[in-house]
Each structure stands twice: as structure tokens, then as C-alpha cells.
Amino acid sequence: MGLNIERFDEDYLYGTGTPDKNFVHEYGIRSLLYLVPEYETGYLKNMGNNAEALSLKYAYLPVDAGKVNPELAEKACTILAGLPTPCLVECASGRRAGAILSIYDARKHNLTPNEAEQKAKQLGLTFLSSPALLPWAMAAIESTSTK
After folding, report:
1. pLDDT band at 2 (very low <50, low <70, confident <90, very high)
2. Could you read off the pLDDT of 78-116 as tens digits, one per residue?
3. What highest taxon heads this organism's lineage (predicted)?
């Protein structure tokens, strides 16, 4: 599978594909959060071994876009906060990765749902067109915004 990776900000990248040694070196990647559930087409069962071989800290959090909930948002943010950066967040399409990074970023920078949505639009994040991921992300952001 080819790489389709975009930069979210200076600390986070997101997208699809299996990073190789050259990619990890070029972007200074230090960790990988893999979101593809085992039962989903495109799941790479060796992703953890691949990450380890590249000296990356690896975390696995299966995210089914049809089964997102507040607890999943909390868990994702906790995992991201504990991973060294730069960090690559990967899923099959980039939508779940973009949604999770938007939630994490909004919480980290105390963005309102509207501010987070505007940033997501500027970045061209595709989760904005998902009937499941968009409301989940906005609710998760709203629940912690203090503005």
C-alpha cells in the first residue's frame, strides 16, 4: 500500500499506508497510533512489528466509525498525550485519524467546536463529510471546551 500522509501540525501527521525507514527518518517520526480494527479490510496485522522494527513507540486503538462514543475520544486523547512526537496517526482512509487529531488539538488548545471545524476545513480533513465522525468529534470537543 502506498503512503498517503498529510501533516496536521508540527507534531502530528495522519493518513494511510505503511511508513518505511526513509519516511520515518525524513519526518522524524517517533511514534505510531494505528486505528484500523482487525475485522476491517486493510487491517495490517504486522503493523506493531513494523513500527517496532522502525524503533517507533506503537499504540493500537481500533476505531469503528459506526461505533464512536465519548469514552473512545477520551482514550484516544490519553494515548496521544503519552506518545512521543512527531507522531503518525493512521487509519484506512485518514478520516478517523483526522477526527481524533481534531479532538486532541481542540482540547490541547481549548478550541470551540466552530474553531476546530474551521481548522479542519482549512486542513481539508475528510471526516467533515462523515455522518458518524463529524457529530462525534464536535460533541467530544464541546464537552471539554471552556470558551
Report:
1. low
2. 999 999 999 999 998 899 999 999 999 999 999 999 999
3. Eukaryota
How far from chain centre, in Å, is Cα 72? 12
> 4-143 is classed in which CATH architecture?
Alpha-Beta Complex (3.90)
CB of 17 closer than 8 Å to CB of 93: no
The confidence score (pLDDT) of residue 73 equals 95
Q: What is the pLDDT of residue 131?
A: 94
pLDDT tens for each residue of 20-38: 999 999 999 999 999 999 9
Contact indicator for 67, 73 with CB cutoff of 8 Å: no
**CB neighbours of 105 closer than 8 A, spacing ≥ 6?**
8, 9, 12, 111, 116, 119
**Where exactly are the structural domains of the chain?**
4-143
Rounded to a whole number of angstroms, the distance between the first and last alpha carbons of the chain is 42
95-109 vs 70-82: helix crossing angle, rounded to 10? 80
8 Å CB contact between 59 and 79: yes
Q: Which residue is associated with the grid cell 481524533?
A: 100
